[in-house]
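Q: what sequence does this backbone want?
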């Protein structure tokens, strides 16, 4: 099960007996699998979830827990914001683009308030309060956060409204979401077999997916699906060969996963002729603290700005890694650094500090005068509350004055005071491309026809994303389209 080679299907005629069977087999028990299992079971189907790990949760349980929801949720209303599906669609189309899947995105936005209520009905609670500053993740229980909606150019495309919803827990919240979804799926009647690695799809003489083969503690098993198989096996960031084939820009960098995102579901389906989409698209996170970057500037290895620092930090990360020469630096003055409470600095300390920009750029190995020119131009306009180059919001604009500091994202978060670059790249990510599916999760073949009996959701599929990413759109679209896939699979 390694590499990028497809996994040949097993012919049903060769299977002499099945060790278990169900109406719907769900492969993988992360957020998409939990949503699919819940909906299929709630529709009356007999559901069996096969999970390769010792317990459910997957990468979803390790995530930050943001849910990208909008259109006028109760949390938005309680915080004083009006929102519509059209505004949500306009923002996401741009931020997740170019080439976002507009059919899926439209459905996601139109039904977002209903999807929010679905989470509430599963037992999640959301505080009616807003975290009102750029961040990767609030260190609070605030139920709402901005994810770049109030930054240029998006403010020219849609009425700004914060849509990052966070359940009532501090810091990472993915575990809490999965706790509730796992409980819901099990209460609905879904049965789970853990430590069960699915190894291939079983296909009957008509080309219909009829089940899967699996391995558990060295024993070879077969499972029959009377109606359908739903693949929710995650992406392929943990598969070096697939990364080299499709997304080589992540090679050598950190991976955001549970270590089991090896593309197995994608490869099993591809062996049947299933089509894939957006396989080169990835989420990228640069370990720069947004609260510091927005009070100063993010520059490339030549000392040049290249983005407004108040955008969603994943977007400035992609802009850096995919388009700019490194290394990347957060340049901030003493006032800007001290303005960020210690708890919100994520444990980072300046790697270099100097009284003058000339001294700092020399320390950073930049061309003489490069950083002086960049900061000088920035300051001249900041005096007037303007940023004509990148249009950072005036809230964050002020002239920078010495002493100055340079923070190195390669040090990572919590490197310790005085720590030097730790050998990492300061970059981590995961894959967004996967199987080509309909809005109801049916896997399509290379001719655009559904593969009978096969559905997919979550990072095993290509969801709403084009070439961009916003936090909350993995848990959000994974559960949303997982639900739709589960309902469709239950219909057979």
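A:
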């Amino acid at each position: 099960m390694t590499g990028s080679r497809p996994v040949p299907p097993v012919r049903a005629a060769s299977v002499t007996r099945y060790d278990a069977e169900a109406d719907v087999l769900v492969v993988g028990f992360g957020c998409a699998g939990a949503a699919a299992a819940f909906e299929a079971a709630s529709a009356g189907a007999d559901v069996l979830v096969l999970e390769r790990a010792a317990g459910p949760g997957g990468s979803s349980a390790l995530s930050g827990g943001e849910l990208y929801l909008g259109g006028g949720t109760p949390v938005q209303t309680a915080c004083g914001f009006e929102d519509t599906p059209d505004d949500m669609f306009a923002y996401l189309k741009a931020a997740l683009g170019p080439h976002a899947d507009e059919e899926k995105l439209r459905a996601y936005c139109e039904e977002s308030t209903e999807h929010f209520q679905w989470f509430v009905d599963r037992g999640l609670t959301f505080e009616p309060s807003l975290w009102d500053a750029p961040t990767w993740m609030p260190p609070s229980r605030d139920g709402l956060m901005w994810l770049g909606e109030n930054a240029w150019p998006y403010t020219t495309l849609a009425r700004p409204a914060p849509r990052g919803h966070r359940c009532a827990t501090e810091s990472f919240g993915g575990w809490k979401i999965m706790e509730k979804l796992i409980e819901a799926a099990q209460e609905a009647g879904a049965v789970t077999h853990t430590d069960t690695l699915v190894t291939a799809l079983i296909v009957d003489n008509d080309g219909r997916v009829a089940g899967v083969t699996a391995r558990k503690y060295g024993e070879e098993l077969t499972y029959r699906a009377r109606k359908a198989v739903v693949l929710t096996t995650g992406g392929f960031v943990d598969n070096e060969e697939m990364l080299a084939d499709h997304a080589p820009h992540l090679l050598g960098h950190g991976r955001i996963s549970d270590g089991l995102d090896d593309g197995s579901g994608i490869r099993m389906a591809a062996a049947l002729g299933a089509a894939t989409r957006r396989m080169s698209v990835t989420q990228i996170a640069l370990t720069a603290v947004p609260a510091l970057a927005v009070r100063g500037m993010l520059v490339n290895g030549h000392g040049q700005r290249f983005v407004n620092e108040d955008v969603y930090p994943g977007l400035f990360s992609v802009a850096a890694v995919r388009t700019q020469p490194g290394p990347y630096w957060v340049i901030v003055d003493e006032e800007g650094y001290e303005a960020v409470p210690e708890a919100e600095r994520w444990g980072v300390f300046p790697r270099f500090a100097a009284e003058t920009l000339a001294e700092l750029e020399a320390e950073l190995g930049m061309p003489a005068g490069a950083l002086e020119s960049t900061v000088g131009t920035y300051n001249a306009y900041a005096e007037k509350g303007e940023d004509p180059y990148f249009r950072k919001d005036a809230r964050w604009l002020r002239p920078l004055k010495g002493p100055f500091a340079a923070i190195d994202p390669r040090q990572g978060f919590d490197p310790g005071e005085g720590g030097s670059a730790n050998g990492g790249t300061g970059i981590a990510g995961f894959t967004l491309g996967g199987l080509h599916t309909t809005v109801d999760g049916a896997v399509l073949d290379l001719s655009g026809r559904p593969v009978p009996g096969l559905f997919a959701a979550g990072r095993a599929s290509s969801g709403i994303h084009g070439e961009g990413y916003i936090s909350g759109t993995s848990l959000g679209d994974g559960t949303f389209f997982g639900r739709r896939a589960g309902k469709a699979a239950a219909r057979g």
